[in-house]
Amino acid sequence: MALAAQLAVAGHGRWVLQSQQLAGGDRVTWLKRHSDAPVPLALFFIALVPRALDLGAFASADEAKWVYRSAQFLAAVLQGNPAGTAVNLTPAVTTTWLGALGLTVYHALGGAAGVPLVDWLAGLPEFRTDLDVLVAVRWPMVLLGSLAVSGLFALSRRLVGQRAGLAAGLLLALDPQMVALSRLLGHDAPAGLFTGLALLALLVALGQSTRRGRLLWYVGSGVLTGLALLSKSPAFFLIPFAGLAGLMAALVGGEPHPPTPSPGSGEGGRARSALVAALMWRLSGLVVWAFVAWLVFVAAWPAAWLRPVGAITDVVHNAFLSATDTAEASAEGFWQVPDLGGLYYPVNLLFKLSPLATLGLAAWLASRLAAGRRPPTVASVGPHPTASDMVEPHPPAPSSSGPHPPAPSPLRGEGESPPSPLAERGLGGEVLLERGSGSEVPAQRGSGGELLAERGSRREVEWLLLAFAILFVIFMTLGGKRSNRYLLPAWPALYLLAGLGLTRLAAALAGLRLARGVRLIAAALLIALLVLPAVVSHPYYLSYVNPLVGGALTAPRLVKIGWGEGLDQVGRWLQSQPDAAALRVGSPYPSAMAPFFSGRLSDVTAG
Prior knowledge:
single chain, three-stranded antiparallel beta sheet, disordered N terminus, alpha+beta, four-stranded antiparallel beta sheet
C-alpha cells in the first residue's frame, strides 16, 4: 500500500497533513494540529509579568481623577442616568468602563466595609485615592494590555508572517513605554491599543479577495475602531487614513472580481471600468466599517444613546478646544526643557523607542533602501509559516498546461488560499512566486536577504504602516497640547516595521555563516536588548529613555521626564514621621503622593 503525504494550509496558523490512499480504496484522513497555538498565550503571559508586578509601587499624576471619573460613570449607570456618563469628552469611555469594573470587583470583595456600592462611589474624592483602590482599578487595564499584545500578534502574522509578527509581539510585550501606560488607569493605553488593533484589522480587510472575508474583517475592524474612538479623540485620525488606505488598495490592487468590459470598449475604457469597480469595492467596505464603528460608539456609551450624532460632535469640538490649549506646552519651561516646536514629537519618539525597536527600524529602512535599488521580479501571494513549522513536501513538477493560480490581492492576508508547494518562503514568512508561462518557479532573493515583490502584499502593508506613523505624528504636531504619551497609537505600526527589520537582519546574519559562538553571542545580545530596558526601569517604566540616543545623560536637557515617579518614596518617608498627619506638604503632583501620605497636600503653587 502506497501513501503520499501532501501539506496544505487550512486556515490561519493551521496545518493539515493529508494522507491519501492511492490504491485499494478512497479513504482520506486529515490530521490537524495547531503548531503555533501556544504563541498568543505565551505572549499574553510575557506581557502580563511586567505589567502586573508591583502594581502599587507608585501613583501617576492623573490616576486619582480617573478613579473619581470611573466612580461617577458607574454611579450614573447604576442609577439609570445615561447623561451622567458623559464624565469626560475626550471621551475616555473605555477607561471609565475599565475603572468601573475594577471598582465593582473591589466592592464585591468587601473593600468598602459594607457600604452600599452607589453610596461608596459617591463618597470617593476627586483628587485623592487609596492605594488598594488604585491597584484594583489598574488590574483591568493590565489584562487589556496583555490581551492586546496577543491580538496585535495574531493580526500581524496575517499581514507579515509568523516571524516578523512574533518579533513585533515581543517588542510590544516588553516595551517600557507600552508597559508603563498599560498598567495605569488612563486613556492613553486604550487609545493606542485599540487604534493599533483597528489599523491592522483594516489592513487585513483591504487584502481580502472574497466578499465574505472582506465583510467580516471590515466589521471586526469597525468594532475596534469604535472602541478606539471611545478611548481618545486622536483616534478619529483612523477615519481619513482608512480612506487613504482604501484608495491606495484600489489603485494598486484593483477589484478581485472585475466586471466584464462592454464590447467595443477600448483600453482606456477598460482601465476606467476597472478603477471604478475597484473604488466601489473598497468604498462599500469602508461604509460598512464606518457604520459598525458608529454603532459601537453609541452602544458602549450611554450618554450617546440620547444624542447618537451630537455625542460625536461634542467629542470632536472638545478635541479642537484641547488641541488649541497651549497651557501645557507653555508649562514646559517649568521643567527647564527647550521648546522643540515641530520637532517635539520626533525627538520624544526617539527617546521613548526601545533600543531593539530602534535597531529594527533602522534595519527595516536599510532593507527597503536596498530593495529599491533592484528591479522587482516576482509577485507575492501572502505570508507563509516558517520552515521549522512544517514538513517539506516533494510534489511532482507542475504541468505547464495546468491552470494558473488566481492572482492575489496586493494586501492579501494569510490563510486565504494555499500557496504552491514550489513557493519559496520569505524572511518574514511570506511566500513569493515567480509566474512564468504556465509554470511557477521559486523567487530569487534580493539584496540584504529581502525577497522583492512587484505587487507584493508585504510592500504595500509596510508603506501603509509607515504612512500611518508619519501622518499621525504630523497630525499630533498640529495641536498645542503635547506629551510623549500621545504618540502611543503609532507604536503598533512602528513596532511591526521594527519586527520586520529584525527578521531581515537575523536572516542576513544567518547568511554570513558565522561561527556558532558568534551566533550565540549575537542572540544573547538581542535578548538582552529586548529584556533589559524593562528590567532596569521597573517599576518606574515612565522614566525610561532610549540609551541609543543619549539616555539619561541627554534626555533631561531636551524632554520632560517624570509623571509622579519617586513621590511614593517621599510619601512613605513622610508617613513614617511621628507627626505625619499634621504635616502640610507641597508637590507638583499632590495626587500622586496622596496614596502614601495621610497629611495635608497642596500644589507647589498654592499659597
